[in-house]
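User: Hey, my collaborator sent me this sequence without any context and asked if I could get a structure. I don't really work with proteins. Can you help?
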Amino acid sequence: MQIHVVQGDLTEMPVDAVVNPANSQGVMGGGVAAALRTKGGQQIEDEARASAPIAVGAAVVTTGGDLFAKHVIHSPTMEESGQKIGVENVRRATRAALIAAARLQVQTLAIPAMGTGVGGVPLDEAARAMVDELRAHKQPHPVTVYLVAATEAMITAYEGALKNALVAG
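Assistant: No problem. I've predicted the 3D structure and written it out in structure-token form, which is a compact way to encode the shape of the chain:
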């Protein structure tokens, strides 16, 4: 698996699928979820809500609507909107998203920082958990993963986690 760190807008990524760090209810009210709904269309949220509740550690796939990505993988980091979470939820959500991407046989996947917004997980802890899960994922798909960061601080966290993983691995 190739892993690339990019600073950018998840809704603009030219990939097969993007990950929405969702809540279990499928409500796309804020942060990354709201951006995906706004850009991709209400049908994305409607499909996610029809599959709710979605357990933390599970994922559902919906259409990408008007996004370039054909699919949105909704992988809850929290049960309720606005809930503070621990880093274990980031691990479980990342793992579930990767398993869903493998089932879909997507070549390219874009993942935003999971749990770092309202979830309150420190950037370095979230990045480390996400990179650990990427390294543990031994399936042939996805072939390429883009870790998408909205801020320079998240870029630094991703790059640090990847560097530490290479040293440890």
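In plain terms: The chain has one domain: 2-168. You can pass these tokens on to your collaborator as they are.
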